[in-house]
């Protein structure tokens, strides 16, 4: 993937629970949403440069969130983060046109593992803007 040209601050939109303690904001703006409706509203208001969706049913159905994003914008990179590694989820991720899929460790709570992926994604996004 080529580098991203951005006029504004790079924006990472995360479908999942925010961490208990917000990491210091760097060059990348990180915003959390907890529903598909909120995700759609955020995409309507301001474009995101990368979207990270947690798949931890029943509270966070990342596959459905990816589908909602794709109905709105087919070009934005979308990462699906999940502890569920099975054929059904993998097929659903492919069908929903996820850009990347990240396996979360099963011995760590999904919310905690997600925060590590958010940091990595923000660093990657920051590197794409240089």
UniProtKB/TrEMBL annotation:
Task: Using the UniProt annotation, give all residue ranges assigned to the region (Disordered).
Answer: 1-20
Presence of the UniProt keyword Kinase in the record: yes
The organism's superkingdom is given as Archaea
The UniProt keywords, alphabetically, are: Kinase, Transferase
Quote one Gene Ontology molecular function term.
Answer: kinase activity
Protein's name according to its UniProt entry: Histidine kinase
């Amino acid at each position: 993937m080529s580098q991203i040209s951005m006029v504004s601050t790079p924006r990472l939109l995360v479908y999942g629970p925010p961490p208990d303690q917000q990491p210091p904001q760097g060059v990348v703006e990180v915003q959390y949403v907890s529903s598909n409706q909120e995700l759609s509203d955020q995409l309507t208001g301001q474009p995101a440069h990368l979207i990270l969706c947690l798949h931890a049913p029943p509270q966070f159905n990342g596959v459905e969130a990816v589908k909602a994003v794709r109905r709105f914008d087919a070009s934005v990179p979308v990462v699906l983060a999940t502890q569920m590694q099975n054929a059904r989820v993998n097929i659903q991720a492919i069908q929903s046109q996820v850009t990347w899929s990240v396996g979360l460790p099963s011995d760590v709570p999904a919310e905690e593992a997600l925060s590590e992926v958010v940091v990595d994604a923000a660093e990657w996004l920051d590197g794409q803007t240089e």
